[in-house]
C-alpha cells in the first residue's frame, strides 16, 4: 500500500498499477477489506484499456459484495466496450500517452494490440460547406496515381467506432494503406471527418496500429512497440511518408474548395 501511495504522490501511473497488482496478490480475495483495493486496481486497469482484466476484477468484487460497492454499472459499460473492441473496427482515444498503455500491458503481461490515437497532428480543417468523403478520396486518388508518388498510400473510407473512457460514438475515417516497412511501421495516419449542417470538419491524426498473429512472443512484441513510441516521443525520427499524406490531405481539401485555406504555417505546425 505504501508503494501505491508513493506512486500516486509521484504521479506515476504505471507504478500505481504495479503496486496494486502486487497488493491484490497478497491479500485474501474473499476478504471484504480487499474490495477497496481491488476497486482502485480495476479503475487503473480500465484507464489502461486492459478491459478484460478490469472486467474480471469488477466481477470478482460483485461476488464478494454488492452492498458496499455496486459494480454493475462498470460491468455493463466494460462488457459493451469489450464486445466492440473484439468484434468491430474501433479507434481508441486514451486519456494518457499510448506509451503508458504499453507499459501497463507489459506490467500485466498482456498483449498490446489495437488502434490507439496518438495525437491530432494539426488544427481541424473547418469548411463552411458539405464535402463528401467519396469526393475527397476520388481527388486524392487522382493525385496519387497521376504523380506516381511512392510515398502516398491508397485511401479508403472506414465506418467505425470511436472510443474514449466515457463515450462511444460512430464516426467516419479516411484511412491510408499501411506502410509495412521502416522503423515506425506501426505509426499510421488517418483523417476523421465530421459533418454538420453546411459544414465539414477534417481532423488529421496519427495512431498506433498493432497486431500480433502469434508469431512474436508477447514480451518481445510489447517491447518493440514501446521502443518505437520512445523514439517518436524523443523526436529522433522524421516520417516523410506521414508528411506527404498530411500535405496531400491539405492540398485535396483546398482543391475541392477552390480557395486557399491556410498559409504555410499550417504545415509547419503539423508536428510530423
Short structural summary:
With 272 residues, the chain is α+β, with helices and mostly antiparallel strands. Helix content is 47%, strand content 20%.
List the helices and strands and how they pair.
Layout: H1 2-9, H2 13-26, H3 35-47, H4 51-64, H5 72-87, E1 90-92, H6 98-107, E2 114-120, E3 125-127, H7 133-147, E4 155-164, E5 167-176, E6 187-196, E7 199-210, H8 218-233, H9 240-257, H10 265-268
Helix pairs in contact: 1-2, 2-3, 2-6, 3-4, 4-5, 6-8, 7-9
Task: Give structural notes.
By secondary structure, the protein is α+β, with helices and mostly antiparallel strands. The chain contains 10 helices and 7 strands. Strands 1, 2, 3, 4, 5, 6 and 7 form a 7-stranded mixed β-sheet that branches. β6 and β7 form a beta hairpin. α3 packs antiparallel against α4 and α4 runs antiparallel to α5. The radius of gyration is 21 Å and the shape is elongated. The chain starts with a helix and ends with a helix. About 4% of the residues have low confidence.
Amino acid at each position: 500500500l505504501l508503494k501505491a501511495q508513493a506512486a500516486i504522490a509521484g504521479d506515476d501511473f504505471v507504478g500505481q498499477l504495479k503496486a496494486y497488482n502486487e497488493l491484490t496478490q497478497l491479500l485474501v480475495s474473499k476478504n471484504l477489506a480487499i474490495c477497496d483495493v481491488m476497486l482502485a486496481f480495476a479503475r487503473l486497469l480500465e484507464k489502461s484499456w486492459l478491459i478484460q482484466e478490469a472486467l474480471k476484477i469488477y466481477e470478482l468484487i460483485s461476488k464478494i459484495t454488492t452492498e458496499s460497492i455496486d459494480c454493475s454499472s462498470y460491468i455493463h459499460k466494460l462488457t459493451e466496450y469489450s464486445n466492440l473492441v473484439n468484434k468491430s473496427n474501433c479507434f481508441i482515444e486514451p486519456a494518457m500517452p499510448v506509451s503508458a498503455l504499453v507499459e501497463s500491458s507489459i506490467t500485466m503481461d498482456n498483449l498490446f494490440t489495437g488502434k490507439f490515437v496518438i495525437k491530432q497532428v494539426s488544427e481541424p480543417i473547418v469548411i463552411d460547406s458539405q464535402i463528401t468523403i467519396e469526393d475527397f478520396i476520388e481527388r486524392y486518388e487522382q493525385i496519387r496515381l497521376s504523380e506516381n508518388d511512392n510515398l502516398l498510400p491508397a485511401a479508403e473510407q472506414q465506418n467505425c467506432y470511436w472510443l474514449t473512457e466515457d463515450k462511444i460514438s460512430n464516426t467516419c475515417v479516411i484511412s491510408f494503406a499501411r506502410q509495412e516497412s521502416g522503423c515506425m511501421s506501426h505509426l499510421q495516419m488517418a483523417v476523421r471527418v465530421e459533418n454538420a449542417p453546411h459544414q465539414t470538419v477534417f481532423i488529421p491524426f496519427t495512431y498506433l496500429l498493432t497486431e500480433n498473429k502469434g508469431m512474436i512472443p508477447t514480451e518481445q512484441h510489447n517491447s518493440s512497440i514501446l521502443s518505437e513510441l520512445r523514439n517518436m516521443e524523443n523526436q529522433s525520427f522524421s516520417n516523410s511518408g506521414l508528411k506527404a499524406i498530411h500535405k496531400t490531405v491539405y492540398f485535396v481539401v483546398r482543391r475541392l474548395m477552390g480557395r486557399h485555406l491556410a498559409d504555410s504555417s499550417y504545415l509547419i505546425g503539423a508536428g510530423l
